[in-house]
Design a protein that fits this description.
Radius of gyration: 21 Å
Low-confidence stretches: none
Helix content: 25-40%
Shape: globular
Mean pLDDT: 96
CATH architecture of the largest domain: 3-Layer(aba) Sandwich
Bound molecules: (4S)-4,5-diaminopentanoic acid
Strand content: 5-15%
Largest sheet: 7 strands, mixed
Order of helices and strands: HEEEHHEHEHHEHEHEHEEHHHEEHHEEH
Strand order of the largest sheet: 4-10-9-8-7-5-6
CATH class of the largest domain: Alpha Beta
CATH topology of the largest domain: Aspartate Aminotransferase, domain 2
Number of strands: 14
Oligomer: single chain
Distance between the termini: 23 Å
Number of helices: 15
Amino acid sequence: MATSGSKEMFARAQKVIPGGVNSPVRACKSVGCEPLFIERAVGSSIFDVDGNEYTDFVCSWGPMIMGHAHPHIVAAIRQSAAAGTSFGAPTPTEITLADMVVEAIPSIEKVRFVNSGTEAAMSAIRLARGYTGRDVVLKFDGCYHGHADSFLVKAGSGVVTLGIPGSPGVPEDIVRNTISIPYNAPEILEKTLRDDTLDIGCVIIEPVAGNMGCITPQKGFLEQLRALTEELGIVLIFDEVITGFRLSYGGAQEFFGVKPDLTCLGKIIGGGLPVGAYGGSAAIMNHIAPDGPVYQAGTLSGNPLAMSAGIAALKLLQAANFYDDLNSKAADCVAMLKTVGQRTGIDTQINSIGSLMTCFFTNQPVTDFDSAMTADTSRYGEHFRNMLSRGIYLAPSQFEVAFVSAAHSLNDIEKLGKMTEWSFKKMAEK
Ligand code: HOZ
C-alpha cells in the first residue's frame, strides 16, 4: 500500500507537534512503523490520506460503537452546531443526557459532565478524597485512568507501551499517596485494604481492564472489592470509560451486578465527541461545588454539541437485542481467532468479554499485569504490520483492546479471520 502522503504529513507534524502526535500510543513506535494520517471514516472503514481503506478494529478506542459517521449522530451534531456550539451556560440537552445516564447506570443518581475520561477520573478521586478526608488512592497495576498525576504509577496504555516507569513531572508527594497492587489478587487486596496505617480513602478500578490488553475480573473479585470497601468506609470508583454502555447499556456494573460508589464515564456517552462524566449517589455527589466544597469546573463541560451526539448515540443503543447482536458478532471473531491460533501453531491467548478482545502473543493465561508482560511485543508488532498491509487496522500496541462495532459486517469478520490466518502463517514460516 502506498503511504507517501502519511509519511509526508508525519514529517510535517513532527516539526510542530511533540512526536508528531497528540496522544503517544498513536505514534505507532511500539509496532515499528509510522502513523497513518486518517482523512475520513464511515461505518467499519477508515481511509487514510493516500486513499487506502482499512477495516477498523480500533473504533477511536471505543466510542464508535455504532461505527463511524452514523447518520443519526451526524444529523444530531449538525442540528446542534447550527444552533451554536457552546454558551458556557446550562442547556436543555445536558439534562436529557443526564436523565439517560441516571436511568441507565445502576449506581448513578447524579452525574456531572466533563470533557474527557481523564477529567472524569481526576475529578472523581478529588471528590472521594474530599468526601472521606483521606488522600490515599488504591489502584491496580496496568489499569489506566487517564493521565492525571495520581494515575501514572504502574499505569497501562501508553505508559506501559512506551515502557515509561512513572512520569517525570509527577511530584513525589502524589506518588506517595498512590498505592498500586496486582489485578485479580484477592489476598493482596484484602491485606492492603485492611492495613489501617495506609489510610486509604478510595479505590479506583477498571471493572474490566482494557489498557493492558483485555483482562477480565476473576469470579468474585469485584464482589470482594465491593464488600471490603463498603465494610471499611472506602469509596469505590469504577472507571467505566471503556465499559460504560459497551458491556451492556448499564455498563460493567449492570453486567456483573456490582455497584460502585462513583462511576467514571467517557467515550461512548459523547457519540465520538470529547466528553467525560462522573456520577454516583446524591449523598456523595452533593459534595461537589456549588452544593458542596469540592471544586470542579469547566467552560466547555456539558456543551450542547457533545450532549446532542451523546443523546443520539445512547438512543441507538436502546434498540432491541443491540447488545446480544453485537456480542455474538464479537464471539464469532473470538472463536475464529482461537481456531486460527491452533491451526497455525502460533502461541496466543485470546482474552475477551462482550465486544472487547485482545490477542496476546504468549502461551500463558493473561490475568494481570505481570502475565500481560509475558506477551511477545515484537511478534505483535509484526502481526500489526502484516494486518495493516492487508487493510486491517488494529491497535498499535499489544496492550490495548480491539473493539467490534455494530457497523462491522460478516464480511469484515471473515476478512479479519482470513488476514489473521495469513499473518500467523507468515510468522510461523520464519
Ligand atoms: N488506552 C487509551 C484509551 N483507553 C489509548 C488512547 C490514547 O491514549 O490516545
